[in-house]
Design a protein that fits this description.
351 residues, alpha/beta, Rossmann fold, six-stranded mixed β-sheet, 10 helices
Length: 351
């Protein structure tokens, strides 16, 4: 199967000019109409200017905007990859296990624990090079969100879709997430692997320390990133009022606290490290430093090669539209305006 891409995707930002230009033209056209209405009735004014057209300038503008769209696509360089090859690159395999339980909606870290975690993952993905990455989400159960891949744009796309509703069973099963991560790596041998568990650490379902020990026995390092503050914060009710928080059966507001002790124990058992993520920049830099200590081995990656440029079609369309715009005059043609191709000549009865 072929794959489509843009060689210079940054040029696509210029597409934002099209609605802006259309909006400016709309404002100018309305102002022009209001100025004409000051002189009298528009039907009378139109009869005084028989060669003037109020429609053709708009048609010409839309043709120019479509031509501009085609030219921007040409500059972005549309391409099709026609050949899939396996290439060797040096890297490691990383699976991120992200906690999506309700407690991750707490706002002791702004804008919330989950949103800050997603930003941290995005920064981490931006700094990876030749490494494979996969994403697991977990609450009361764990699910694979993205199998290990070197397709970083897809990883960030999947990341944007994650929220606390993605896993139906509530809870925090860190051990299950580690076990699923161990099964989710590729079958390739002799490659260094790491699991990064991003959570507030409030585990209620299983024994994450034992799971981390099982991972370490297989040569997989387990790193933990703590989201939240030790003093904790209430958990907002989704869809509720601004200051409405989850309560226990006794009616008391539930305070979710970062369990650093558990996360430190998991990291020690997994031969990894615990990273508090209160400061996202320093936290990610610390994590990258930890991962850089792992020796990068050759990994097989399937990539598309022999990309063929496909800008010719859009260039031809732009040229055709510009030519059409030149042929359309802003004023009516006085020699052609009275011609009606659909007029049927009727003869008088009796002739």
């Amino acid at each position: 199967m072929d794959i489509f891409r843009f060689a210079h995707p940054n040029y696509l930002y210029a597409l934002a000019l099209i609605p802006v230009l259309a909006f400016i033209y709309l404002i100018v056209a309305r102002r022009r109409k209001k100025n004409l209405e000051k002189f009298g009735n528009m039907e009378v004014i139109s009869s005084l200017m028989p060669d003037a057209s109020f429609v053709r300038p708009t048609v010409k503008l839309y043709i120019l905007l479509f031509a501009l769209f085609a030219l921007i696509i040409v500059m972005a360089g549309p391409q099709f990859g026609t050949k899939l090859e396996t290439v060797k690159r040096k890297g490691i395999e990383i699976i991120i296990a992200l906690d999506v339980s309700n407690s991750m909606n707490a706002t002791d870290i702004q804008p919330s624990r989950l949103e800050r975690a997603k930003r941290a993952i995005a920064r981490l993905v931006d700094k990876l090079n030749n490494d494979r990455i996969g994403i697991i989400v977990f609450a009361g159960e764990a699910y694979t969100q993205l199998p290990v891949t070197t397709d970083y744009p897809s990883a960030k796309m999947f990341l944007n879709t994650i929220n606390t509703d993605i896993v139906p069973t509530q809870g925090t099963a860190i051990g299950s997430a580690i076990d699923l991560a161990m099964k989710s790596f590729s079958d390739q041998k002799d490659i260094n692997r790491a699991i990064i568990v991003i959570t507030d650490g409030e585990n209620h379902e299983d024994n994450p320390v034992e799971a981390a020990k099982r991972a370490a026995a297989k040569g997989i390092r387990v790193y933990t990133v703590g989201m939240g503050l030790p003093k904790g914060a209430p958990i907002p009710v989704k869809g509720g009022q601004k200051n409405e928080f989850m309560k226990d059966r006794q009616g008391n507001v539930v305070i979710s606290k970062l369990d650093e002790k558990t996360l430190q124990e998991v990291a020690i058992a997994g031969n990894g490290a615990y990273i508090p993520a209160n400061n996202i920049r320093s936290g990610i830099n610390h994590l990258l430093k930890q991962l850089s200590n792992l020796e990068k081995k050759e990994i097989d990656s399937k990539v598309y090669t022999d990309y063929e440029d496909q800008f010719q079609y859009f260039a031809g369309l732009a040229l055709l539209l510009l030519l059409l715009e030149l042929l359309i005059l802003e004023r009516k043609n006085r020699h052609l305006k009275n011609i009606d191709l659909f007029q049927v000549e009727t003869r008088e009865e009796g002739q």
